[in-house]
Amino acid sequence: MVFPVLVDSGNGHEEKMFEKFVRPPGTRIIASKDDKIFLQKEIRLETNNTFDWRLPGGKVMDSFDEYKDFIGKEIPEKIILEAGIKELREEALLNTDTIKMFKKSTCGALVEWDLYYLVAENTSPVEHTHDEGEEIIEGKWFSADEILEMCKNGEIDEDRTVSALYQFIHKSLNN
Q: Which string of b and e fits 25-34 if b means at least 16 CB within 10 Å?
């Protein structure tokens, strides 16, 4: 996608054209239970087929065609929460009756890829198997201290998730 931007040229503003990468937004679910958070160990292509620990999550919409009408607009929270429940069930094999928005993470000015961090409470296991293509090795509940250590040592490698987990843990510990 190419779009115009006004930039200061020193002699006033002039319009320049920039490319912008747009990707449909995703969810990351912080499933919390008994002062623990659920993470899953996944094999990731972007880490040369090694694994890391991640929050369950996925796309808010399954295709760009579904998303294109929302470009430049706010996606209704109901759609985001429903996508989070679906991803929690498919990836973590957990269900919830309580899910809420925690934060929206924007990627940057020239890359549009929002991640919606959701908090799921009152989770319970579901009878289901992982969908085809889900490269999940295992899921496990971790304490706040364990998660903070995993963020520090790189076992949790997705930068925006590290930030969201630090913020969530800090809020949870101070309430």
A: bbbbbbbbee
Determine the Cα–Cα distance for residues 139 and 166; give it in Å rounded to an integer.
20
Tokens of 60: 């808010």
At 137 the three-state DSSP class reads: strand
Which residue in this structure is represented by tokens 């209704």?
76
- pTM: predicted TM-score of the whole model, two decimal places: 0.85
Angle at 154 between CA 152 and CA 158, to 5 degrees: 105
Structure tokens at 47: 């880490």
- Retrieve residue 150's tokens: 């995993």
Euclidean distance between CA atoms 103 and 28, whole angstroms: 10
Report whether pLDDT(125) > 70. yes
**Model pLDDT, residue 1:** 57
C-alpha Rg value of the chain to the nearest Å: 18
